[in-house]
Amino acid sequence: MLTLNEFARWTGLTLFEMDLHSVALFLTSLLFVLSRHFLFSLTILHLFAPLFVASALNFYFLVIIFVRTVIEDGTPKRAIAGNALHFFRVTMVALFEMILCHKLQDEFERGNQQKSIETTYFMVLMPLWALLIALSVHACRLF
Question: Which residues cross the membrane (predicted)?
């Protein structure tokens, strides 16, 4: 079983990022249950709003860290190299959330009607596959 420190080291996540996305996932799950159980009229975009906000906050704090690193070092080369995986990770997670939201919105709103653009689940999961490959390369670099 992985400890929290090992998980944070292998994925590059900080405790703040883990907490941020855990709270967002909890709020999204809560909104989903409330909208389906108590018949609130929330769209899929409203249900995914906590996840989008968490990704935006995560990206915002990564930009702050990037700017601080550039100011402290005086050159952006080290800042780009050090934060590339983090920016890639946040981008892939946000892209996955957006494509999944689009797919679910098409399925729930249009039902079984003819769709103009069919998004497969392979396309939805593509950012997660890219993220998995990047994390595998990062984990191999640690050894």
Answer: 20-40, 47-67, 79-100, 121-139
Q: Which two tokens stand for residue 96?
A: 């996955």
Number of domains in the chain: 1
Spatial distance between the Cα atoms of 65 and 63, rounded to a whole number of angstroms = 5
Picking from 16, 34, 14, the residue whose alpha carbon sits closest to that of residue 26 is 34
Tell me the pLDDT band of 6, cut-offs 50, 70 and 90: confident
DSSP 8-48: HHHH---HHHHHHHHHHHHHHHHHHHHHHHS-----HHHHT
Reported as a single tens digit per residue, the pLDDT across 56-106 is 999 999 999 999 999 998 888 888 988 999 999 999 999 999 999 988 888
Which two three-digit tokens encode residue 44? Answer: 């899929």
Q: What is the dihedral of CA 90, 134, 138, 58, to 10 degrees?
A: 0
> Of 118, 90, 109, which Cα lies nearest the Cα of 42?
109
